[in-house]
Amino acid sequence: MLVYPLRAAKALRPAICIATCRALGGRLELVLPSAAVLELYHNAFLIHDDVEDLSEKRRDQSTLHEAWGMPIAVNVGDAMLALALMPLLDNMRLVGMGKALRILQAVAEMARETAEGQAIELAWIRENVFDQGDDDYERMVEKKTSYYSFMTPMNIGAIAAGVESDCVDALLKFARPLGVAFQIQDDILNLAADESRYGKEIAGDLWEGKHTLILLHAIRSSTPSERARAQAVLAKARPRGGKSLQALTGVEAAIDDLVREGELSPRAEATLRERTGRLRASVTHVHKTSEDIAFLSGLIERQGSLEYARGIAAKHGREAKVALEALSDRLGPSVHRSFLAGLAEYVSDRDR
Amino acid sequence: MLVYPLRAAKALRPAICIATCRALGGRLELVLPSAAVLELYHNAFLIHDDVEDLSEKRRDQSTLHEAWGMPIAVNVGDAMLALALMPLLDNMRLVGMGKALRILQAVAEMARETAEGQAIELAWIRENVFDQGDDDYERMVEKKTSYYSFMTPMNIGAIAAGVESDCVDALLKFARPLGVAFQIQDDILNLAADESRYGKEIAGDLWEGKHTLILLHAIRSSTPSERARAQAVLAKARPRGGKSLQALTGVEAAIDDLVREGELSPRAEATLRERTGRLRASVTHVHKTSEDIAFLSGLIERQGSLEYARGIAAKHGREAKVALEALSDRLGPSVHRSFLAGLAEYVSDRDR
Fold this sequence. Notes:
The structure is a homodimer.
Chain A: H1 12-23, H2 28-53, E1 57-58, E2 61-62, H3 64-68, H4 70-83, H5 85-95, H6 97-127, H7 134-161, H8 165-192, H9 195-198, H10 204-208, H11 213-220, H12 224-235, H13 242-260, H14 266-284, H15 290-302, H16 305-325, H17 335-349
Antiparallel strand pairs in A: 1-2
Helix pairs in contact in A: 1-2, 1-7, 1-17, 2-4, 2-5, 2-7, 5-6, 6-7, 7-8, 8-16, 8-17, 11-15, 11-16, 12-15, 13-14, 16-17
């Protein structure tokens, strides 16, 4: 359970939760356990996401399922979700019954919305349809990312600080676009980041067939024949079983050598090629290749989809800034307010 | 999310929860949402267990990950765990703050204990050590099975009925051995059930290397050389990738044919056999075979381990009966009490 939490990470969600509480005049002690719970949920989501996506790297090292096996990774995620409930129940003594209940409700809603966002994305991948518009993407991302990364952290910070619900509503107007911009930047970094700083696999989203704003734009802007090829590429799975493939290539190379050296009759060669061809089909025919990924990357480059996505992320950043202005009579000047204000740039400027 | 819940099933956990509440004089309406939550947790656990064990059948049909893919199955489990929180929060209005909180605490403890039991078992499998005693097995099973199947359902039924904590303690003394006997019978059915009634794969536990009471007894009672072979067999993974293996067998058969027909020089044959041998090793060398499983089954039969396990299950059944006697002044005669009393036989007599 400590594998992911002990790796260097931003602790963005607890930071936002604490800053919100403090900016609104609340005390650190009252929000600390709830803030820690948010980080625990985040780590549980990461573990299960990595299993679902068959990702190989997380925070610069092996994913939990790569290091410990898939069964243990699934169970560690479940254990974290179970342990996260304890501090929320202990909150009763710390912040009183009413606030503790509202925090519990916020966390339950967050868990449901996050799973629903994930469900929408997984269904899109399974159905291999890429006709979603920007609004579909934003609705999915609001659930998948914004709820647990921005909206709920601010909501809980505000509950702990004891402010009224109209202030919470104003905070959510600030949090929502931050989350959308954050996810768009996540998608951009996945394609264009400096791998040594990024800590994850570059272009993993393309291998996984993720419906990013970038890919949706590139496909929407392409010719019908490019679109058909992209769809065919994206219908294929990620390649797996690298060792078998290597050994098979060894068999094929041996046949090539024997033919070159005149050791095989035409009939023997034909038989062996036909059989190894069938074997190769069973190992590889549904898998994406590096050329497939290069084709998708080329499409994205030709359509200017990265720039397009940067523009949309910036638009959401501006929307967040306007929403923060509306909160100025609630949030006096403080280091906490400055931190929150800085998020509007951070979400789309970050390089990891 | 409805795939597993809509398949025919026993609804054992809600039945126990409701019967306990009613036998203690509590009202059905007050316990119904909590009882439903227990079934939801059970289904979430089943989905994730099936993923962890790579099981193929559940309730007579494909497991969720076989039918919908592993990513969706992991997320559906998470979504169920998230949705289960809502009725527990709504309980506040239904049963009042104090009882609702105690039920929430019981569920949180249950989720933690279940994940811990699962973690113990997965660690045993990963480390491939089979020297656990019956007491180790019972501790693991108390957490993995008894907590969420018997102890927490009775605990919640009692909380909803409003009884004091000494009555809850007495109920847990009844519930704990029921769960252990139930799991031992589960292990027995896995090896010896009528497949048409069982709804799961026969001998799946052996393929998965599960540390059942039966297998632990068989290994403990074997000769050192049998023990070593069992350990070597259990270190291997379940076979996967059947199609590639079939195609590879086709390549090898073609080489055999060509040799028989005099089409291959000795050098060509040697080269091809060496390369296909390497390929076979990469596809199969760590996988269990049917002979491996037959060896383990033979060991279990020779050591009388099924009968041994039946004896231990019966002992726990008797322990449960004694514990129920101690509750006779709390539980007046009723259909609900009869249902609970019947569990002592049911847990080890059931055939599915």
